[in-house]
Write a structure and sequence with these properties.
- The chain is 55% helix and 6% strand.
- The chain has 377 residues and is mainly alpha-helical.
- The protein has a five-stranded parallel sheet with strand order 2-3-1-4-5, with helices on both faces.
- Helix 11 crosses helix 12.
- The longest helix is centred in the N-terminal third of the chain and has 31 residues.
- It is globular.
- It starts with a helix and ends with a helix.
Length: 377
C-alpha cells in the first residue's frame, strides 16, 4: 500500500512553513492539530498495513471477491448526496462503509476482531454502549451539515486518506494549491497516481463487499465527480447517479461547510474562507460528470434534480431502480413510503448571507449561467 509521499511532504511544508495569510495560519491551536495529525497518521496507516497482511494470510479469498454493478453517487457538495445515499442504504440488499469501518476497521480481520469484542461486550453487560454514545454525542456537536456517528454510513472516498491522495484533504489543510489537480482528477492527476489510488480503492471495496456477504455496493462522494471516467475504467459495469441542485443553494452552503472546517481545525482570521476554490470546483463538477456519463448506456446512468428528490423521494428512488434494473423488495417499498411521508415536513434550517461571504446573487448567476439551460430546461 504505497502512498503519495510527495503530496504528504508538501502538506507538511505548507502546514508549518507556508500558512501565513491562509485559513490555516499557525496559531497554537493549529500547531498542535498539525502535530497530532502528522504523528498519528503514520501509526494509523501502519496498523492498517499489518491488518491487511493478516487479511491475505487468513482470508485470501477476499482478493477474488466480485464487485458487481457498484453504484456511485456523485454531484457537488450540498446537493443532497447524503440524503440519497442514506435512503438507498436502507435497502437490505445494499451496503456502504460506516464511519467505524472507514477509520477503525477497513480490513477483514479488523471487522471480525471488533465483532468478537462486541460479543464480549454484550456478554458482560454492554459497557461500550456508554463510550460509543459519548463519542457520538461529541461528534454530533460538530455535525453542522448532516448526522455523523460511528454507525452512520459515510463517504468511502475517505479511505484515500490512507494513501494521502484526496481532494478531501482540503477540509483539514485549506491550501488550494495542494489539491488543485484533484478538482480535475481525470484530466490532471498523473496516471501513476490514479493507478495507485484506484488499486487501493478497489482492494478496500472488495474487502468490504466480502465482509458483507456480497451485497450491492453503494458509494457516495462529491469529490468523485471529477473522476467518473477513472471509476468507469476500473468498474466497467458501474451505475452512476448524478444529483444536481441549484447553485444559489449549493455555493453558500459549501462555503459555510469549508469555513466551519477551517474554524474547527484552526483559527482563521476571516469568518468565511475558500470562496474562489468552491466556485472553481463546483463549476467543473456541474459540467464534467454529465459530459462523460451521458455517453454510457442508459441503464448505467441517471441524472436527478435535488428538488425532485426532496419533493418525491419514493418516486425518485423507483425511477433509479427502474433505470438500473434493480428490484425493490416489499420491505424497502415500505421504507420508501415512510420516507415520502417524512419528506412532506422537511424544511432546511440553514440560512446564509451571500454579502457576508463576499458574494452576490448576481455573481453566482453569472458564473453558473449554464445551470438553467442544461439542468432545468
Amino acid at each position: 500500500m504505497r502512498f503519495n509521499l510527495k503530496l504528504y511532504l508538501t502538506t507538511v511544508k505548507f502546514a508549518f512553513f507556508k500558512s501565513e495569510g491562509t485559513p490555516a495560519r499557525l496559531s497554537p491551536k493549529r500547531f498542535f492539530i498539525n502535530l497530532f495529525i502528522f504523528l498519528f497518521w503514520p501509526a494509523w496507516v501502519l496498523s492498517m498495513r499489518i491488518a491487511y497482511l493478516f487479511d491475505n494470510l487468513f482470508y485470501p479469498e477476499h482478493q477474488e471477491q466480485d464487485v458487481k454493478e457498484p453504484v456511485f453517487i456523485v454531484g457537488n457538495f450540498r446537493s443532497g448526496t447524503t440524503f440519497l445515499h442514506r435512503l438507498l442504504t436502507k435497502d437490505y440488499q445494499s451496503t456502504s462503509f460506516t464511519s467505524f469501518e472507514l477509520y477503525m476497521a477497513p480490513s477483514v480481520v479488523g471487522r471480525k476482531f471488533y465483532r468478537w469484542l462486541l460479543k464480549v461486550n454484550n456478554f458482560i453487560g454492554n459497557p461500550a454502549k456508554w463510550v460509543i454514545g459519548l463519542f457520538n454525542r461529541i461528534v454530533e456537536k460538530e455535525a453542522y451539515m448532516h448526522k455523523i456517528g460511528l454507525d452512520e454510513v459515510e463517504e468511502d472516498g475517505q479511505v484515500l486518506f490512507h494513501v494521502w491522495s484526496s481532494f478531501d484533504l482540503l477540509a483539514f489543510f485549506p491550501f488550494p494549491k495542494l489539491i488543485r489537480k484533484y478538482i480535475y482528477y481525470d484530466d490532471q492527476v498523473p496516471a501513476d497516481v490514479k493507478k495507485r489510488d484506484m488499486d487501493y480503492y478497489s482492494e478496500i471495496v472488495r474487502k468490504h463487499i466480502y465482509s458483507h456477504g456480497g451485497r450491492r455496493y453503494i458509494s457516495k462522494n462529491p469529490s468523485y465527480s471529477p473522476k467518473v471516467k477513472t471509476l468507469h475504467q476500473y468498474f466497467p459495469d458501474a451505475k452512476f447517479i448524478n444529483i444536481v441542485r441549484n447553485p444559489l443553494q449549493v455555493i453558500p452552503s459549501t462555503i459555510s461547510l469549508y469555513s466551519k472546517h477551517c474554524r474547527t481545525y484552526g483559527d482563521p482570521e476571516a469568518e468565511y474562507n475558500l470562496q474562489e476554490t468552491v466556485i472553481e470546483h463546483s463549476k467543473h463538477w456541474y459540467l464534467y460528470p454529465h459530459q462523460y456519463l451521458k455517453t454510457l448506456p442508459s441503464d448505467q446512468y441517471i441524472q436527478i434534480l435535488y428538488k425532485d428528490l426532496v419533493a418525491d423521494p419514493e418516486g425518485t428512488i423507483r425511477d433509479i431502480y427502474q433505470r438500473f434494473n434493480f428490484e425493490i423488495s416489499p420491505e424497502f417499498a415500505e421504507i420508501l413510503r415512510a420516507e415520502a411521508e417524512k419528506s412532506k415536513s422537511y424544511k432546511s434550517k440553514h440560512l446564509y448571507s451571500l454579502k457576508k461571504m463576499g458574494l452576490s446573487k448576481k455573481r453566482i448567476e453569472k458564473e453558473f449561467q449554464f445551470f438553467s439551460e442544461q439542468f432545468e430546461s
